[in-house]
Automatic annotation (TrEMBL):
Name of the protein in question: Phasin family protein
Phasin domain: residues covered: 28-126
Ranges where the record places region Disordered: 136-157
Domain of life: Bacteria
Pfam families: Phasin_2
Native organism: Roseospira navarrensis
InterPro entries, alphabetized: Phasin, Phasin_subfam-1
Comp. bias regions, Low complexity: 143-157
């Protein structure tokens, strides 16, 4: 097995903790980034679960369609009158088309629901990140010394 380069053994968190940058709260930045990773992980889980639900429902719909097709084919063989057969085939084609449209609508709604859940989760985290960054900036700004006024007083004309 090939030896990993030393770069991969480098501990970034230790390096960042050792750096003391004035006005920058590295612990808060690391905590914020950890929350971002958790949010992305949850978003991926939600997206995966949504796709899983869609695929399961598609499989279920396919199974139902195949069962209905088998029943229809069997009942069509019993028909003697060609006009009755054509009328029945027309009705069945219409019902099949309506069912297909209904199924497509259901799949679309399932996907939209899943996408909305993922979007809401990511949007919430994005808003929280902006608030955290603003808080860090406000905290850093509050920790700065006040600007010194020029010596010598003011001259009013």
């Amino acid at each position: 097995m090939a030896k990993q380069p030393e770069f991969f053994d480098f501990d970034f968190t230790k390096y960042l903790a050792d750096m003391k940058v004035p006005g920058v709260d590295l612990d808060a930045i690391m905590a914020s980034q950890k929350k971002n990773v958790e949010a992305l992980t949850n978003a991926n889980r939600l997206a995966f679960e949504g796709m899983q639900a869609v695929m399961q429902r598609q499989a279920e719909l396919l199974r139902q369609s195949m069962e209905e097709y088998a029943k229809t084919a069997q009942s069509m063989g019993d028909m003697k009158d060609p006009q009755d057969a054509i009328a029945r085939q027309t009705d069945m084609a219409k019902m099949g088309f309506e069912r297909m449209i209904s199924n497509m609508r259901e799949m679309s709604e399932l996907l939209a629901k899943s996408n909305n859940e993922v979007f809401e989760l990511l949007n919430k985290r994005f808003t929280e990140t902006l608030d955290e960054m603003k808080g860090m900036m406000d905290k850093a700004e509050a920790g700065k010394p006040a600007p010194k006024k020029p010596a010598g007083g003011s001259s009013a004309s």
